[in-house]
Automatic annotation (TrEMBL):
Keywords: Cytoplasm, Hydrolase, Metal-binding, Nucleotide-binding. It comes from the Bacteria. It catalyses: a ribonucleoside 5'-phosphate + H2O = a ribonucleoside + phosphate. NCBIfam families: PRK00346.1-4, PRK13931.1, surE. Belongs to the SurE nucleotidase family. This is 5'-nucleotidase SurE. Its cofactor is a divalent metal cation. It comes from Albidovulum aquaemixtae.
């Protein structure tokens, strides 16, 4: 099996080391794992691509490249430059440091990388590690992902839905913020929504008198509705959410058509 991996935390991120180990076990001794990851951290860039300027790409070692762009850029670079059109069997993105559940999905470069792979017609999985007080003192805060990542990916490959239609389905996986030994299992969950948790800005004035704005986030451990991703994670489960890039509100189409007739 040929696997392409990327992330949004950057080529030197510890989560990418975890993902590399997962991918190598899935690929097997006769398989190939190719890495194309951002040269610098690209958290929060979602599915953006470097459409208006070129990006530098550098070979760091065998099947290992750093690209000066977003995770979606890295997938494109991997498919059409690094692999020279030799399509991988699977694209994995992550393992992100921090959850990409609920509204975080919309900002996530990790999810953006998997989404671009799906738009290119490839099977893709985004993987993220929820962080919290119980992960701080572990040998690695990625312990749940390290211990269960291979099993999750194999289960999705064997039993998941892999359609080939427009806006191909891909998967968003979040590992709970606990030790690997106490993970309760997997739960299929919809994307949740944290009420009263929003991104904002915090202004700071530099010594030169110029104003700069830092983007701020809200609390990450507020539970979402039962049956959704954050609720599953905070209850000790790995959440598995099937997704598509189609943003149409299909539930509103018929009603809107009647209203506008």
């Amino acid at each position: 099996m040929r696997i392409l991996i990327t992330n949004d935390d950057g080529i030197n991120a510890p989560g990418l080391e975890i993902l590399t180990a997962i991918a190598e076990e899935i690929a097997g001794p006769s398989g190939e794992v190719w890495t194309v990851a951002p040269a610098f951290e690209q958290s929060g860039v979602a599915h953006c691509i470097s459409y208006t300027h070129p990006m530098m790409i550098l070979k760091l070692g065998p099947r290992r490249y750093a690209a000066e762009g977003s995770p979606a850029d890295c997938v494109l670079a991997g498919l059409y430059d690094v692999l020279q059109g030799e399509r991988p069997d699977l694209v994995l993105s992550g393992v992100n440091r921090g959850n990409n559940a609920a509204e975080n999905v919309l900002y996530s470069g990790t999810v953006g990388g998997a989404m671009e792979a799906a738009l290119q017609g490839l099977p893709a999985i985004a993987l993220s590690q929820f962080m919290g007080p119980l992960t701080e003192d572990l040998e690695t805060p990625f312990e749940a992902a390290r211990d269960h990542g291979v099993a999750v990916v194999r289960t999705l490959l064997d039993k998941g839905i892999w359609d080939r239609g427009d806006y191909r389905l891909f998967y968003n996986v979040n590992f709970p913020p606990i030790a690997g030994s106490v993970v309760k299992g997997m739960k299929v969950a919809s994307q949740g929504y944290r009420t009263d948790t929003f991104f904002g800005v915090e202004p700071h004035v530099s010594p030169s008198g110029k104003k700069f704005l830092w983007i701020t986030g809200g609390p990450q451990h507020l539970p979402t509705a039962p049956g959704t991703d954050v609720a599953a994670n905070l209850d000790g489960f790995i959440s598995v959410t099937p997704m598509r890039a189609d943003l149409t509100a299909h539930d509103a189409l018929s009603d809107l058509e009647v209203r506008l007739a």
